[in-house]
């Protein structure tokens, strides 16, 4: 088996072997994340901790092997090592080794969760790309509108939070401006924990205004993204050009240009 | 009354008798579900339990009769018995009989609720079909986009849950990663019970980010479904057929088929 | 001043006097509702109750006078008396008189709130009609889709509520199925009071599913209404017909038919 | 350096110096707001209060200098002084000076937050204008629809609040109609603090209806804004001008002006 062959299996998704490798990797990732999650359940821990410990090292060695092979077969190992996925791959094995050096490094456990991010790499399998692209292009196209919106929300949160701090004061739980801003975020996003809530009539009036504002402006990002998405889907449909009369905007199922009758180029069918 | 006649009444919705049967069935379903619900109210139970018990058996026998008749008149009883509605019909009578064998089987009571699912069968009555179809086609068309979205949400929930577990820790109620993930779901969906809420400044900062993320990404599925629905409704409106070449999907103001040049039938004005 | 003249002032909105009457009525309605609201504040009550009592009777007599005049000047008093607004007008004065007969009839106070509904009548003033019509037509057009959606939500609420009743049981606050259904509504609508919340791991898992379902299906009614509204606005724009070639769908600012060059009928400008 | 030159730097955004000035101003605004926020954290206060005090006066003098220079270089100082930004600029320095006269005027601290509003002025930098304009035009176009919607929501809130006051009464926390209206707002906006929640079965039934109504009508403003935004973006895209007759708004695939027949300029493909 040549280096190119292994590269095709590990990095590619078109060959049968490559697809099988991806599926095994997904299962391993899910299993290792499940181990991390179950290990944290305090009730299970004392009893089963030993098995989780072994499983953890099994997955660490597995992913270390995968990382080394990826480095080895990559035509440009440095490019891979410093790519997004290369760093994720490294981060998913590092914490276990670090915990050997510093036995108390439980806080690095979280980095193991990063493994789940590696699952994005195999998304190619599901041919989700086109959909993700449409979504991503829509978000990118409305980037500036969304930034303007988020800036307005941030300003509203700061203003409402500070007003509440002045109205309710530390005696009602609003002990500082950051805490009041936390309350404003809880309220504007309509989460509403209730751990801090206004008790004075004036505070409740301001809280009511905050809620109604949060409730109303929720419509704005939805409107932005929906309008962009609709346009993006419209654009996709309009990418078919008639070579003869240069007319675009044909229906998805059009076989002839509805302007000059020239046959349109065949389209790949979306499944 | 022939077998076909009874089949027409029980399974069909076009004859007057069939429609009357459907209405009676709906009433019986609602009544039996109400009995189950009211029976659970502890205040009413001791006093009226006897009546509920009788009512329960009355409906069980009624639905048993219905099930037997359906099996009998069905041209292919096996197909019916293993169809979705056939299984629901069986599940709606089984629990009562099982409770005779095992007097403590109160936990099967929930299956009786399944009866309410049978109401879908008579929805045909209300000519809801076309609307449900549009809705269903839209959801199906955006299936992959929604899966990509749900996958991103799941990843965010796991990542935020684990981070909170590390930041707040068991002493603030985040006793395990599954519990932290539960908190993350409560927060990202903007439900916000408040049974677990962050108490450290760092935890509240992370919670704020979680909320804002949840608030913002709510716009994405709405955008997806709206854009699909708009397209689907657009497509529906374009169901004008050319009688000559059998092509549909003409523009609203088209007077000639853009496929073969045949004049299109005049359109009724939408009211 | 003739009867017709008074009718024009009280029921009409086109004359200057009619508009002035409407404005006075709006102010009186707001003032009387404010009295009802302020009267309920227990802190203010003992001290100012007397003034509220006088104010209450002042408004009652005012609205009685208005009701009598409306009945008198109406060409068909019976039609007015049994119309929606006629009943609201009567309901807004009845409670005060009934409270004379039965001094303890405080529970009728709420009917006085009905007065605020009379404000709808003067909405004509603001020329909101066209917008309300578009909104109303959209909701009506998507009536069946929304009913199908609400039916699905109702089913989900019943199913999730019953499951929670079985899983958590009376010892965790889910004392009956109706209470569990209340919890399911609180959760699916993402309100999340936290007065009842799951405490067992299985219950929290089911609650997480409930939340994610509620979060996701929120997109469906938004999609339905948005798509309908967009279509409605599209339709409005397309109501202009060319008399010559019978082509519709012209731009809002088109002066000539873009098909045959015939001048289009002049359009009323929307302000 | 002439007066015009300074004006160009302070008020303009096109020159390199002007852009550098804007960036410095943004940093100063963020820093001064951070000082106000951090100063309120009671844990930090006793220890670091002195440094915050000095920082506060540093920023006050800086913004005073900026205000004076703006007044001096402005061609029409009065117009600037009474403009929106002129007032904000004044309000951002006044509280510090007032606090010298009245040492207890801590409540004016909030006005210092107004400084953050000055950041809007430099938004021009980011070319956000076009997006903000589209957003603003959409909101303005749907102004009347949104007002009708808000009026309906206000009515629902008053009616539900009053009903709850009658059903639950002061013994369950609904001590007055304003408090009940506060509860109705918390519920309809799906915030759900849980500080006041119904305890009687009838109250919980009404609360369920309130939640479902709030959940459903959230779709209406989203629909309004989305439909408007989609139309607005549609309109933007149609900004192709005919050089001959100066007519815009041609279809995306139009090759000739549908007004005078002049060929349209070729369109750049949207990337």
How does this structure look, described?
4 copies of one chain form a homotetramer. Chain A is an all-alpha fold. The first copy, chain A, has 2 domains: 3-124, Voltage-gated potassium channels. Chain C (Four Helix Bundle (Hemerythrin (Met), subunit A), Up-down Bundle); 126-237, Orthogonal Bundle (Helix Hairpins). In chain A, 65% of the residues lie in helices and 0% in strands. Chain A has helices at 3-11, 16-40, 45-73, 77-81, 84-91, 94-101, 109-113, 129-141, 143-168, 177-188, 201-217, 219-237. The longest helix of chain A has 29 residues, at 45-73. Chain A is flat, with a radius of gyration of 27 Å. Chains in contact: A-B, A-C, A-D, B-C, B-D, C-D. The interface between A and B is large, with 54 and 49 residues.
- SSE sequence of chain A, one letter per element: HHHHHHHHHHHH
Low-confidence stretches of chain A: 119-129, 267-271
Mean pLDDT of chain A: 73
CATH class of the largest domain in chain A: Mainly Alpha
- Cα distance spanning the termini of chain A: 35 Å
Compute the number of strand runs of chain A. Answer: 0
CATH architecture level-2 label of the largest domain in chain A? Up-down Bundle
Q: What is the count of DSSP helices of chain A, taking H or I runs of 4+ residues? A: 12
Oligomer status: homotetramer
Structural class of chain A: mainly alpha
What is the domain tally of chain A?
Answer: 2
Describe the largest sheet of chain A.
none
- Beta content of chain A: under 5%
Q: What is the gyration radius of chain A calculated from CA atoms?
A: 27 Å
């Amino acid at each position: 088996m040549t280096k190119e062959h292994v590269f095709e299996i590990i990095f590619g998704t078109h060959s049968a072997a490559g697809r099988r490798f991806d599926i095994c990797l997904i299962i391993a990732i899910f299993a290792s994340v499940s181990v991390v999650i179950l290990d944290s359940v305090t009730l299970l821990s004392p009893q089963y901790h030993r098995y989780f410990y072994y499983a953890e090292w099994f997955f660490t060695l597995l992913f270390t092997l995968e990382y080394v092979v990826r480095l080895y077969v990559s035509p440009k190992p440095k490019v891979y090592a410093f790519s997004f996925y290369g760093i994720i791959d490294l981060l998913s094995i590092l914490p276990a080794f670090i915990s050997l050096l510093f036995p108390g490094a439980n806080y690095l456990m979280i980095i193991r969760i990063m493994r789940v991010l590696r699952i994005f790499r195999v998304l190619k399998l599901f041919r989700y790309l086109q959909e993700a692209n449409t979504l991503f292009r829509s978000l990118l196209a409305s980037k500036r509108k969304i930034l303007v919106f988020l800036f307005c929300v941030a300003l509203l949160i700061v203003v409402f939070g500070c007003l509440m701090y002045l109205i309710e004061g530390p005696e009602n739980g609003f002990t500082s401006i950051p805490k009041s801003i936390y309350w404003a975020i809880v309220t504007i996003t309509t989460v509403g924990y209730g751990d801090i809530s206004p008790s004075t009539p004036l505070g409740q009036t301001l809280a009511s205004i905050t809620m109604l504002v949060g409730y109303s402006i929720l419509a704005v990002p939805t409107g932005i993204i929906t309008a962009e998405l609709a346009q993006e889907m419209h654009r996709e449909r309009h990418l078919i050009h008639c070579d003869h009369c240069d007319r675009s905007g044909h229906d998805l199922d059009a076989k002839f240009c509805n302007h000059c009758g020239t046959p349109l180029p065949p389209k790949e069918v979306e499944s």
